[in-house]
Amino acid sequence: MTWLNFNPEVHWPFSGAVTQDIHPSLLAKAGSDQTEVRVLREVASYGKQIGVLSDLLLALVASVQPKKLGPEGEHALEQLCQLVGDIQRIKSELHPLPDDPAAARELIVALKERFPELKST
């Protein structure tokens, strides 16, 4: 009895789950799709590119007085720090092993200290 349904499920455009991958062909045609695809495959993903820019921006802000940013700038900086922290947390949850050899060595030393039975291996 559909006429008794007082809570119909209606899907308007752009309502509900509209998450999707960002594909170069979906972006504005300001450049070349082929260039975008090669950059993504051979250089860095969008996430990596944004990560580098975030790291640079945080380093630049740390080198000046953040109080001179004003309320809007301070709020934006807090949001950026929160985003970067959340991203690092998710990465560490999904990939608990370090990416660089020095950090891997530190982890091995810490594990051998925590678990002495590993020292013989």
Explain this structure.
It is a single chain. The protein is an all-alpha fold and 121 residues long. It has one domain (32-120). It contains four helices and no strands. α2 (46-63) packs across α3.
Taking Cα atoms only, what radius of gyration do you get, to the nearest Å?
23 Å
User: What number of structural domains do the residues give?
Assistant: 1
Rough outline = extended
Classify the beta-strand content into a percent band: under 5%
Span between termini: 69 Å
Taking the sheet with the most strands, its summary is: none
The tally of strands reads 0
Q: What is the percent of helical residues?
A: 55-70%
| Elements, N to C (H/E) | HHHH
Count of DSSP helices? Answer: 4
On the 0 to 100 scale, the average pLDDT is: 82
**Structural class given helices, strands, pairing?**
mainly alpha
Q: Would you identify the regions where 5 or more consecutive residues have pLDDT less than 50?
A: none
Set out the fold topology:
Blueprint: H1 33-42, H2 46-63, H3 70-94, H4 101-114
Helix pairs in contact: 2-3
Fill in the keyword field for this structure.
single chain; 121 residues; mainly alpha
Describe this structure in a few short sentences.
This protein has 121 residues and is mostly helical. The chain has helices at residues 33-42, 46-63, 70-94, 101-114. It has one domain.
